[in-house]
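Changelog-adjacent note: as of this version, every example in the card shows the full chain rather than a window. The one below runs 296 residues end to end.
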Amino acid sequence: MDLLVQIQETLENNLTMTELQSPDTVQFTYDSQKRKSPALEELLDILQYKDLIVQLVRRDIVARYKRSVLGIGWTMLQPLGMMIILTIVFSQLFGRVDGYAAYLLSGLVAWTFFAQTTTLAIHQSVWGGALMQRIYIPHTAFSVSSIGTGIVNLTLSLAPLFVIMMILQRPITPAVLFLPISMISLAAFALGVGLLLSSLAVRFPDISEMYQIILQGWMYLTPIMYPSYILPEAYRKWLLILNPMYYQILMFRVPIYDGVLPSLPLIGVGLSISTLTLVTGWIYFSYQADKFAYRA
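Full-length structure tokens:
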């Protein structure tokens, strides 16, 4: 109910501003043949309802840590705790990796962002179908807000990562200034995947459960806990080339762990994958969105 009230207040504010700008009543007749492209229409709507996105992000963060003693501190402690456990388990196995804890955490933080935001996008889009029957909001609002929440958590997670880097005496170089580009690329890829999966999950609810299994396998096939050179040479190349998250993890890890800028081919491939995934997901989701309310 609180979310519905917040959304209604935001919509009323937007309506009031519109009325102030256009005091004269204009008769409007809807003509479906003159409708803009659904993808473009959705993009314009999400820009118009940016205040709603801020409210949704705020709600996600406040609701998650409302009754927690440490509050938002858990965002920093969660990846740190996982790093400690995995370092204890795998540090001897991968002892040749210098500063293994930093290597692990730099990949784990990026993967956690991807897994959490795509999962949240699916759940919120399915849940939001019922809300769309009552009031109009952009269909992509829930997926976009899940990415916004993830960006806040990812930014906070960088604090313990840099602390671990300093403890292990690994240099923090100016290459970290490249991180915003890495984060944008990762966010765009996550949004594209989230939109594609949300479109399917509204029609086939089992997608949500299946995706959790896929995430587990995908994580172990991505060099997060281990260096890529330990993969069997016979199919190492295919496991890496065909894994889009490999490029996103590498773009995020290289400026932090290696202290250098990613290579131009890596940046080109990573950004191309993110852009293609986002455009595909956005277009497909937009064309399917009108059916969501009837399937809620």
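Structural remarks: The first helix runs from residue 2 to 21.
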